[in-house]
C-alpha cells in the first residue's frame, strides 16, 4: 500500500523534526526533567496520522511536502499535550498509552501537567517561526486555525463536554446530536485542521480548501466512531492503551448500538471519499487513509 509507506515516511520526518526542536528547547535553558518528560510524551510512539494529513494535503495543494513538516510537527505537539492531560487522574485516569506507562505514571502529575503546557506553547512557537513558511500571512493563518481547533470551541471544549457527560451526567437525556457535537470538537476539530493546514501551506483556492476541510471533517467523525468501537471490541495489547474504559460514557456506539454505529462509520467514510472527487487519482493516498480509519485495529 502506498498509504502505509507514506505514513511511515511522514512519521519519520516528523519524528526527526521534533527531536531537533526539543534539542533546541534544551539548549535554550529548559529544565532537564521537563525536556525529558516532553520527549517521553511526543517521541517514539503513535502513527502520526494527523501529521500525515498535513503533509499529504499540502502536497495535493501543490506544495513541496517537506515544507509542511514543521507544521505537522507542531500539530503533533498539540496532540501529545492533549493525550498527556486527558490521561491525568482528574480526567480519564489512564495508566497506559501507546504501550507504555502514561506520563503522570512514569514521572508524576505535576511534571505531566507542565510537560503538556510546554508542548502546547511550543506548537505555537513553531508555527510562528519563519521556518514554517516564508509568508507571514500563511503563518498567521496556521496559528489562528490551530488556536480555534484546539481551544474552547474545539478540542478542549469537546473534552469539557465529555467530562460533563461522564462526571455530571449532563445533558439529561443524552442525545445523538450532543454526542456528535462533542466528538466533532474533541477529535474531529484537530483532524479537520490537519487537512485545512495542508491547504493553507499550499496556498490552495477556496474550492480546494473546502474539499479538504470536508474530507477532514468526515474522517474525523469516522476516526472517533472507530475508536469507540475499538474500545468495546479491541484488546489492550493490540491497542497499546486501556480498553473498555468508555463503558457508560457518551459515545455513539453506546447510544445507537454497535451495528448502527458501524453503519454510521461507513457513511462517514463514503462522504469523505466523495469530498475528494475533484482531485482524481492525485487523492488516492487520501482515499487509502480513509480506508485505514475504517479498518484500523489500534
Condensed summary:
This protein is mainly alpha-helical and 298 residues long. It has helices at residues 2-27, 32-42, 49-60, 69-86, 103-106, 109-128, 136-150, 155-168, 176-201, 206-233, 236-239, 252-256, 258-275, 284-295, and strands at 96-97, 100-101.
Structure overview:
This protein is mainly α. Helices cover 71% and strands 1% of the residues. It contains 14 helices and 2 strands, in the order H-H-H-H-E-E-H-H-H-H-H-H-H-H-H-H. The chain has a two-stranded antiparallel sheet with strand order 1-2. Helix 1 packs across helix 3 and helix 4 runs antiparallel to helix 6. The longest helix is centred in the last third of the chain and has 28 residues.
User: What letter string, H or E per element, gives the SSE order?
Assistant: HHHHEEHHHHHHHHHH
Low-confidence region ranges: none
The amount of beta strand, in percent, is under 5%
Number of strands: 2
Radius of gyration: 18 Å
Distance between the termini: 18 Å
Query: What best-fitting shape do the alpha-carbon axes yield?
Result: globular
Helix content: over 70%
Q: Strand count, sense and closure of the main sheet?
A: 2 strands, antiparallel
Structural class: mainly alpha
Number of helices, counting only DSSP H or I runs of 4 residues or more: 14
What is the mean pLDDT?
A: 94
The strands making up the biggest β-sheet line up spatially as 1-2
Amino acid at each position: 500500500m502506498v498509504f502505509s509507506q507514506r505514513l511511515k515516511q511522514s512519521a519519520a520526518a516528523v519524528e526527526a523534526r521534533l527531536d531537533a526542536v526539543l534539542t533546541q528547547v534544551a539548549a535554550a535553558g529548559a529544565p532537564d526533567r521537563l525536556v525529558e518528560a516532553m520527549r517521553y510524551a511526543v517521541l517514539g510512539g503513535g502513527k502520526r496520522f494527523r501529521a500525515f494529513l498535513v503533509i499529504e494535503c499540502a502536497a495535493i495543494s501543490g506544495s513541496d511536502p517537506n515544507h509542511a513538516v514543521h507544521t505537522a510537527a507542531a500539530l503533533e505537539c498539540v496532540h501529545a499535550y492533549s493525550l498527556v492531560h486527558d490521561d491525568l487522574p482528574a480526567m480519564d485516569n489512564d495508566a497506559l498509552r501507546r504501550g507504555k506507562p502514561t506520563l503522570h505514571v512514569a514521572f508524576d502529575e505535576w511534571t505531566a501537567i507542565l510537560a503538556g503546557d510546554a508542548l502546547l506553547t511550543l506548537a505555537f512557537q513553531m508555527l510562528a517561526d519563519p521556518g514554517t513558511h516564508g509568508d507571514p500571512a500563511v503563518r498567521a493563518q496556521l496559528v489562528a486555525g490551530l488556536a480555534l481547533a484546539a481551544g474552547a470551541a474545539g478540542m478542549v471544549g469537546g473534552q469539557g463536554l465529555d467530562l460533563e457527560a461522564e462526571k455530571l451526567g449532563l445533558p439529561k437525556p443524552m442525545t445523538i446530536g450532543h454526542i456528535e457535537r462533542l466528538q466533532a470538537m474533541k477529535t474531529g476539530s484537530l483532524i479537520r485542521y490537519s487537512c485545512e493546514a495542508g491547504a493553507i501551506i499550499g496556498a490552495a483556492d477556496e474550492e480546494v480548501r473546502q474539499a479538504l476541510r470536508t474530507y477532514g471533517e468526515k474522517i474525523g467523525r469516522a476516526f472517533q466512531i472507530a475508536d469507540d468501537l475499538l474500545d468495546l471490541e479491541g484488546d489492550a495489547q493490540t491497542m497499546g492503551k486501556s480498553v473498555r474504559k468508555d463503558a457508560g460514557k457518551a459515545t455513539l456506539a453506546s447510544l445507537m448500538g454497535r451495528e448502527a454505529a458501524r453503519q454510521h462509520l461507513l457513511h462517514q467514510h463514503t462522504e469523505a471519499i466523495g469530498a475528494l472527487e475533484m482531485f482524481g487519482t492525485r487523492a488516492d493516498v487520501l482515499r487509502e487513509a480513509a480506508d485505514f480509519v475504517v479498518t484500523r485495529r489500534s
